[in-house]
């Protein structure tokens, strides 16, 4: 077993004029993770196949310019609020909070997506790499001021990436605030176990530990219904090839050109009514071609699955390759979209004196 280690180099300057760095974390188990302090972006992630061959299995870019010239969310830390908030508005008590930027408009219906025009993904965070025992990692910290993108409260956020000797990439989120505010953080990494230039992920097999999901309106905002997946294209309870039902006649699929939906995890707080005390199994992704797998465990109640249905072929990714339709799949552990407007669902509001905490593990392996 190799010794865990890290190295650092310059990564380039963002469109906001901030100098970014890239950190290479080499795990004792063989997995290698390249990340930037620019929004915690995952640049490369090398995992072994069933023959032990390492390959980069995430979609990303060679410099900040790649993110700055197109869809900015590939492999980033998402905050202050991951996913959509309907019409960019919600209430805290009797007070209506109106967020100024409606930066996403599916079906021509505006919403606030992933924290607004400049979410936490678009800042260079403070970063401190570490080696502890047989693990290697990095601690990211960021301060979001009161009124940032319209959200109330000064928030101090910390996100820790840890790569273990068992080839587990663990993400721990923490945050505190001086005013009540919604917080819903996640990691937006896109996997393609055939490699970034491997084409579509429709041949990957996905299993989700969820018997229900939240259908949406034409603006991709949850209607409030929690619907059973049985008998629908959303039934991944036994495992199913992503492409098997992705083009099935379905209004829910047509809205997002494929999967871009929230599943309610069977053992999560939203389904059981109680907060899980430990990690729960959320999903497993497998590539039959080479045997690469990842199992996702989380303390969160939901999982958003997005199959990169709006990828732009004109955007150049690493090594000169082009992004393509459904070239990656994101498995985003989080609370349900638009939760601030659904008081009947587990809350995302954090009060002064409380500590927001969330953890997710990506456990890499093979099918043999």
Describe what this molecule looks like in 3D.
There is one protein chain. This protein has helices spanning 64-68, 251-256, 269-272; strands at residues 5-13, 19-26, 32-36, 42-48, 54-56, 77-78, 84-86, 89-92, 95-98, 111-113, 126-132, 135-144, 155-163, 168-177, 181-182, 186-187, 190-191, 205-208, 212-214, 227-228, 240-241, 260-264, 280-286, 292-298, 302-306, 329-334, 349-350, 356-366. The protein is mainly β and 368 residues long. The longest helix is centred in the last third of the chain and has 6 residues, at 251-256. Strands 11-12-13-14-28-24-23-18-21 form a nine-stranded antiparallel β-sheet, with no helix packed on it. The radius of gyration is 19 Å and the shape is globular. The mean pLDDT is 95. A hairpin with a 5-residue loop joins strand 4 and strand 5 (54-56). It has a single domain (5-366), classed as Beta-galactosidase, Chain A, domain 5 (Distorted Sandwich).
Q: Output the strand order for the largest sheet.
A: 11-12-13-14-28-24-23-18-21
Q: What's the end-to-end separation, in Å?
A: 20 Å
In total, how many beta strands? 28
Structural shape: globular
The CATH class designation is Mainly Beta
What is the count of structural domains? 1
CATH topology: Beta-galactosidase, Chain A, domain 5
Low-confidence stretches: none
Which strand-content bin applies to the residues?
35-45%
Contiguous helical run count: 3
Largest sheet: 9 strands, antiparallel
**Oligomerization category of the chains in this entry:** single chain
Q: Strand pairing plus helix content: what structural class?
A: mainly beta
What is the second-level CATH architecture? Answer: Distorted Sandwich
